[in-house]
Design a protein that fits this description.
This protein is of the alpha+beta class and 155 residues long. It has two domains: 3-78, Ubiquitin-like (UB roll); 87-154, DNA polymerase, domain 1. The protein contains five helices and five strands. It has helices at 24-31, 87-94, 104-117, 123-129, 141-154; strands at 3-9, 12-18, 50-53, 56-59, 72-74. It has a five-stranded mixed sheet, sandwiched between helices. β1 (3-9) and β2 (12-18) form a beta hairpin. It is globular.
Length: 155
C-alpha cells in the first residue's frame, strides 16, 4: 500500500507517494531526479549511493525511503553553492582525485560526514571513513590526499 511521505533533501521538503519497499536510492533518483546518487551494486557493497542522513554517511540502496522521513538528507547536488564548489569537491579536483567520476559523489559525501565531525582526521580515520566506497580508477592515494587537504582548509 502506497504512503505519502515528506523527504527533506538538501533543505527542500518533497512530498512523495511511495510503496513501503522502495529504497531511498530509488526515490532520490527515479522520483525526485537526484541522479548524483549513483546506483551501482544495489547491495551495499560499493558506496556509490552514499548520502548523508542527519550528519551520518549511509547507503541509500539499503535504506527504505520511509525510514528517511523527518530526517535531513544531503546529496551531492546540495554541496556546491551556485558556481562555487564545496571545499571537498574543490580538493578532489585540485588533487586529481577523480577519474571516471562514478564513485566520486559517494566518496565526497563520506568525506563530508567525516570532516563535519572531525575536521582534522588522521590518515587512518580517513581510510576508515571511506572504507565502504569502492573506486576502480584512482588507487585511493589522491582521494586520501584530497580529504586531508579539505580538512586543513576547514580551519
Amino acid at each position: 500500500m502506497k504512503r505519502i511521505i515528506e523527504l527533506n533533501v538538501n533543505g527542500v521538503v518533497h512530498e512523495v507517494v511511495v510503496e513501503p519497499q522502495r529504497t531511498l536510492l530509488e526515490v532520490l533518483r527515479e522520483t525526485l531526479g537526484y541522479t548524483g546518487t549513483k546506483k551501482a551494486c544495489d547491495s551495499g557493497d560499493c558506496g556509490a549511493c552514499t548520502v548523508i542522513i542527519d550528519g551520518r554517511a549511509v547507503l541509500s540502496c539499503l535504506t527504505l525511503a520511509v525510514e528517511a522521513q523527518g530526517k535531513n538528507i544531503e546529496t551531492i547536488e546540495g554541496m556546491a553553492t551556485g558556481d562555487r564548489l564545496h571545499p571537498i569537491q574543490q580538493a578532489f579536483l585540485d588533487k586529481g582525485a577523480i577519474q571516471c567520476g562514478y564513485c566520486t559523489p559517494g566518496l565526497v559525501l563520506s568525506a563530508k560526514a567525516l570532516l563535519d565531525e572531525n575536521p582534522k582526521p588522521s590518515r587512518e580515520e580517513v581510510k576508515k571513513a571511506i572504507g565502504g566506497n569502492l573506486c576502480r580508477c584512482t588507487g585511493y592515494v589522491k582521494i586520501l590526499d584530497a580529504i586531508e587537504a579539505a580538512g586543513e582548509q576547514a580551519n
